[in-house]
Design a protein that fits this description.
- The chain is α/β, with parallel strands linked by helices.
- It has a single domain (4-263), classed as Alpha/Beta hydrolase fold, catalytic domain (Rossmann fold, 3-Layer(aba) Sandwich), CATH 3.40.50.
- The chain has eleven helices and eight strands.
- The chain has a six-stranded parallel β-sheet with strand order 2-1-3-4-7-8, sandwiched between helices. A two-stranded antiparallel sheet has the order 5-6.
- The protein is globular, with a radius of gyration of 17 Å.
Amino acid sequence: MSKTIIFIHGAWMSAACWDGFQSYFAERGYTTLAPAWPLRDAPVAALRANPPAELAHLGAEDILDHYTRIIQAQAEPPILIGHSFGGLFVQILLDRGLGAAGVAIDPAAPKGIITPPDAIRAASGVLLTWGFGHKIVHMTFEQFQFGFTNGLPLAIQQAAYDAYVVPESGHLFAQAIEANLATHSPLTVNFHNPTRAPLLLTAGTHDHTVPQSQVEANYHKYHQTPARTDFQVFADRTHWLIKQDGWEEVAQFIEQWLIGVAQGTAATAQ
C-alpha cells in the first residue's frame, strides 16, 4: 500500500481544514499533501476580501484536472482522501484509474443519487441566489451552522467559520444540480467498474449537508462491482467530522481500513 496520501477538501473550505488529519497520518509514517483547489491558494482572509473573478466559473473538470496532475506527479499511486465534494472527486478519480485506494468522507452526490431535503436546505443559500451558476457565492455563518456544525457549541462554530470558510464557485453547484438531468456530466461515476481501487465511504448520523441516507444510496450503487467498497457510519457526527471533537476516531478508523486493505482484511467498526 502507498505511504503517500493526498487530501482533497470540499466546497466552501480552505485546504487548511486537513491540518489535523495531516499531522495524524504524518506521525504514522505517511507523506501527506493537501493541495488547495485551483484559485484557492491564498489565505482565508484574502479570499474573502478579494476572491478571484475566475472563481465564478470554476467547474468540476478544472478541479479534477488539477488533482490528476498532482496524482500523476507522485512516485507511486497515492491514497486519496476527500471530504464532501472532495469525496465525490475521490470516487471519480478512482473510477478513472487514479489512486491506490480512496476514502470518501461524507461525499457529495455523483450523478444518479437523489438529494434529500436536508441537503437541499443546506444548499439553499446558493439555490436562492439569482443566477448563481455564473457567480461567486458566499456562505453565511447561519448557513454554516446548519450545514456543517449543527449542535456544536457556538464558540466552536464561530471559530471554524472564521478559520476555514471561503467563497465558492456557483458554477460547481449548478453542475451538481444539473447532473441528474444531463446526458453527460463531469460528476459521473461508473459504479460497475471492476478495476477500480478499494473505496471506503463514510457518513455521519447528524450530517445535514450530506445526510446518511444519501451516502447509503451512493454505497448501494456499487453493489454490482467486484471492486472492494466499504461503508462506515459515525454516530453523532456532523458534516464537520474532519474537525469536530473526536475527529481522531474517524482518522483511526481510516488508518485501520487502509491497513486492512493492504492485508486483505476488513476494518473493525468503532
